[in-house]
Amino acid sequence: MADRTRTSLARLGLTEPRAEDTLRELGWWSGDSPAPGADVVMWALARAPDPDLALRQVERLRATGEWKAIDAELRTDVGLRGRLFALLGASTALGDHLVVHPDRWPLLADGPTRQDPPPDLARRTENLLRAVGADPAAERPRAQMTGTAAVTALRTAYRDELLGLASADLAAVGEQSLPVMEVDEVAAQLADLASAAIRAALAVAVEEVDPPEEVKLAVIGMGKCGGRELNYVSDVDVIFVHSGDTQVATKIASKVMRIAGEACFEVDANLRPEGRQGALVRTLEGHVSYYRRWAKTWEFQALLKARPIAGDAALGQAYAEAVAPMVWSAAGRDDFVHDVQAMRRRVEEHVRPDHAERELKLGRGGLRDVEFAVQLLQLVHGRTDETLRSPSTLDALAALSAGGYVGRDDGANLAASYRFLRLLEHRLQLQKMRRTHLLPAKDDLDGLRWLARASRLRADGKHDVVGVLMNEWQRNARRVRRLHEKLFYRPLLESVSRLAADDTRLPEKAAAARFKALGWASPEGALGHLRALTGGVSRAASIQQTLLPVLLEELAATPDPDRGLLAYRQVSEALATTPWYLRLLRDEGQVAERLMYLLGTSALVPDLLVRAPEILRVLATPVAGQPDELTRDPAAVGQGLIAAVARQHDLTAAVASARSLRRHEMLRVACADLLGSLSVAEVCEALSTIWVAVLRATLAATIKDVAAGGEVRARIAVIGMGRLGGAELGYSSDADVMFVCEPAGDGFTDGEAVKFATSVVEGVRRRLGAPSPDPALEVDADLRPEGRSGPLVRTLHSYREYYARWSEVWESQALLRARPVAGDAPLGRAFMELIEPIRYPADGLTTAQVTEIRRIKARVDDERLPRGADRGTHTKLGHGGLADVEWTVQLLQLQHAGDIPELRTTSTLEGLREAAEAGLITADDAYELRAGWEAATRARNAIMLVKGKPGDQLPRSGRELSAVAVASGYPNDGDPGAFLDDYRRTTRRARAVVERVFYGWST
């Protein structure tokens, strides 16, 4: 019998050990089944969100004097059963209120004991005003009680109202035959209840302050209260407007906040002008003056929901009418797009990483995503369409759908998801009447089961109720995550589609306004690109129509979406006959996402991409266990390039192959750089390796061509100099080299060897330097002895003669970066042995030589800095830039490398590290110099990536500066001024070290 009873109770959801005893004491259970006449009660109890919790609450109610009446009514009143058990099984806080005030149970009944139907705003206001002794009919109600007594009375009356509303909201959970209250109806009634509570608090405050008649105060509801979409537990955002004595009005407003806060809910006035730092109350003229002169876009977005909720009605209405025109013109402000991006960032910053997957409000696919998107569309299109000017999210979404600004199906689906998420939020807050937006953790099965049952979810045969909840949550979150695609961009495509029905087509003027608001500087150009990409009935046009909403959303988050869309069109047209191109974008989400970022940030990438489309494949996520092609080993890349060129049968084909492979590899490095997969040093190493491989391959092919079946008369070595020698090339760097040769055998003279080598070298330079749409391949030999006037190629003996007789200190400095990069390896090593004592003098430098180096440096800085350039942001010759750091390291090498072999490196960064290890500079100084060099190198590379052409001067402002900041690793929605400030700060510190270490200036 006992086992059968436990089984029966378990089927009803009752699992606690005391459940059977409690039910028998209540007279609801007999034997192993419900007692006669109590079966309907038991089945209603079983449908509670948590039957065990509901039964515990009933047991507490049984100890009150109202229990006999409640029990009798439960057996006959289906409404009471549904409301009572649903409430007691969903909310411990409201259950506590009912236990303390058991005489309130008729609020839940359906029979003659029940009060009138759920009250409207006027009736709620009347109830709460009467609770504090105020006359609801008075023009300016004043309470008859103050202090603690007023707060207690208001709290009780407010909880009574919540009890009735929450029980009606939850009723369909406990009894399916009862009507379902939609979440927007509940939210509207909660907002009305909040308005009534504010009015009652104001009546108490007026009684406590006793202000003169001329002092008037209006309370403006903001946020969810203003939009009539309030939660069960939420701050109520307000703004206070007054006329008359400011101090008196401030005192009244402060008391309203205190009284309502102690009795009902927190009142938040931080949306007022100047926020917490601003005056609590302002006159109407003060508000208008502030909004006209100082307000940010987010403040107008907040005002979109403003409505008078309490206090002087005429003053409140005057406020609403005064601010409305400013709200609906906000989208035309110059800083609209920047402010919108900042608002998005602020929302994301509020999400704790460990809560991201459980956050209903601020997480991806959460409530704020919907609200933000709807408000943005309202601001954009509400300027000319008054039907969109609703403070309610769901009403505004319906109006946007009706007006064709949002697809009807998309609007309906998004509204459904929003209602579902709000329902979960309401249930979570009802449980303990605490403000929360966080789903129970995945391992909290009891919490998830309670939430699912409280939200009217049921097992579906495939999943238990927890599985249904999680599936529904994830499905709705995913649907909301596509809101930008659906809400913002699908109607834009329909506006240019020949197939869209007239009644669903977004007017072109509205489409242009939306593009502008979303960050496009040339809306008409963007619409033209969409027409070109989606025109016709081809398969490609069809795929583009599917892809573009997602791609446009990604482009909108880049520094220059206009250029990015143009680049995407150019790439798409160039690859129109490439069968896998659109399929790759469609099937590989990461490829599409990365490509849009690259196109919207860089001018170099699309220029290279149309001639090296195969790089798109390496943007995909690598297969598990396979290496990432985007960050291939530079040495392997170089070897592959040399081998591929060597397979060509003639010089023309070989050079073409070298150029093609160089283009591919440069594009790969640029993509990896922009995507943050390579450090500054790794980028420089990779680019240098590519250049070296091109030189080696082209040199070998040219030697073969010049010999033309005859004899090779010279051994040739190419000595890398400057950045090439240091393996520190950037995207726009020339290849600084020197050429050395020796006769190929005893049968050839030096003259014959030089003639042959010169012919080869000139061929290499001519072919690599030929005009090309790719970045230039200049082979610069100006660092050779005697510069441009000297012979292009010398023998080893000639170099020895020259350096022995004519070498100057600047040439010793230039040789610090010399290293063999191509050609005959033994000859290269011999050249290095020759120059070793020249670049690493055993006795260091004389005082005169140090002075000479400093003089040359000063002259270079003065003469080569372009007119009008800013020394603070010139990456090469500016203060703390590349030249400053490199000359400082080179001076230390010339002075000390003769004694310290570790300093004998061609790398700037290695030289810095060894100088610090040797105690020549402090670790702090080495850090500052390294930071300056890396900042300048990164910025110089970013300039080339963004502009597609060389440049050393950072942009001063505008989109170019934003793009350079993003290419340097800064967030797109951040302030590019922060990048500029960081750059100046870093290079300024590096310059301070240069002045002490290089110039010897005392601080």
Automatic annotation (TrEMBL):
Residues 1-492 are annotated as: Adenylyl removase. This is Bifunctional glutamine synthetase adenylyltransferase/adenylyl-removing enzyme. The keyword Transferase applies. The gene is glnE. Pfam families: GlnD_UR_UTase, GlnE. Residues 84-319, 593-832 form the Glutamate-ammonia ligase adenylyltransferase repeated domain. Residues 500-1003 are annotated as: Adenylyl transferase. One of its GO terms (molecular function) is nucleotidyltransferase activity. It is an enzyme of class 2 (transferase). It catalyses: [glutamine synthetase]-L-tyrosine + ATP = [glutamine synthetase]-O(4)-(5'-adenylyl)-L-tyrosine + diphosphate; [glutamine synthetase]-O(4)-(5'-adenylyl)-L-tyrosine + phosphate = [glutamine synthetase]-L-tyrosine + ADP. Its cofactor is Mg(2+). Keywords: ATP-binding, Magnesium, Multifunctional enzyme, Nucleotide-binding, Nucleotidyltransferase, Transferase. Residues 342-488, 856-998 form the PII-uridylyltransferase/Glutamine-synthetase adenylyltransferase domain.
